[in-house]
Amino acid sequence: QIGGTLAHLIGTKELVNEVVLFDVANGIAKGKALDIAQSSSVDGFNVKFSGTDKYEDIKNYDVIIITAGVPRKPGMSRDDLVGINLKIIKQVAEGIKKNSPDAFIICITNPLDVMAQVALEETQFPRERVIGMAGVLDTARYRSFIALELDVSIEDIQALVLGGHGDTMVPLASYTSVSGIPLSQLLSQDRIDALIERTRKGGGEIVSHLKTGSAYYAPAAAAVQMAEAIVKNKRRILPCAAWLQGEYGMRDLYLGVPCMLGENGIERVIEVELDGEERAALESSAEHVRSTVAALKSL
Q1: For the purposes of burial, counting CB atoms within 10 Å of the CB of 254, is it exposed (0-12), middle (13-18) or buried (19 or more)?
Q2: How large is the average pLDDT for residues 124-139?
Q3: DSSP output for 26-81
Q4: Integer Cα distance of 111 and 292 in angstroms
Q5: Is residue 139 within 8 Å of residue 159, measured between CB atoms?
Q6: CA atoms within 13 A on the CB side of 229
Q7: Catalytic amino acids?
Q8: Can you tell me whether residue 100 is helix, strand or coil?
Q9: How many other CB atoms are there within 10 angstroms of residue 48's CB atom?
Q10: What is the mean pLDDT of the chain?
Q11: Residue whose C-alpha is closest to residue 171's, from 201, 136, 196
Q12: Which pLDDT score is estimated for 212?
């Protein structure tokens, strides 16, 4: 469901003038494209939509958002999807490399950090052009839970979530504030800890309710925010899964960190100061990503 939601959001924002939906299952992408296109006269946006099951129809496109793969079911972790989605991402990456060699890639497929690495290795694109969507979504969930807890506008909440996209993610309470007021002045540590834990389990909470699928509205909105930063050269500072090459003392893995996104993709990885506990949590999250990569290599 993420792909269709993405296309609709991109259309309502008139972010680009053409959107192609792709699905290997014949007819699905075409049907969704027609449905979204027909909504444009009601919502008042002018974007060309089409659907295809042929990779040659995505030739020379600028931004490609990968949503392909199997979603979680209740009781599954994101890591449980690694074997299933590996073959899918390899095929998709091959199609992108052949047909859109200059594209920016935003990867959503789980397990996110590992699938982004597969896309990078298969396409051999520079790291600035292969970005994982995780931190924006995780931070959105964190901000949403804080707004509900405090009964305040979500617009006034600033927050940052680092690390891998999973149960080891690292919401940074020290970088969380409400209209500039530190969260620690508004909530007890017990409540902050509870919100952090709910953020880590946020995706699973949705899966447990849906039963037959996983989240798609918030993930799509997060990916669109990233795409908009690139297309419009906004130079937004957003938490993204980036291929680290020495930043935070880590190398050769994807991990959620603050990035400046602009017309060149990831223009800069920003290193923020972390206390001892935060640093240890980030390293633990990185180790979890590495273990999932190791499991993938053994397949």
Answers
A1: buried
A2: 97
A3: TTHHHHHHHHHHHHHHHHT---EEEEES-GGGGTT-SEEEE--SPPP-TT--GGGG
A4: 9
A5: yes
A6: 25
A7: 165
A8: coil
A9: 13
A10: 95
A11: 196
A12: 85
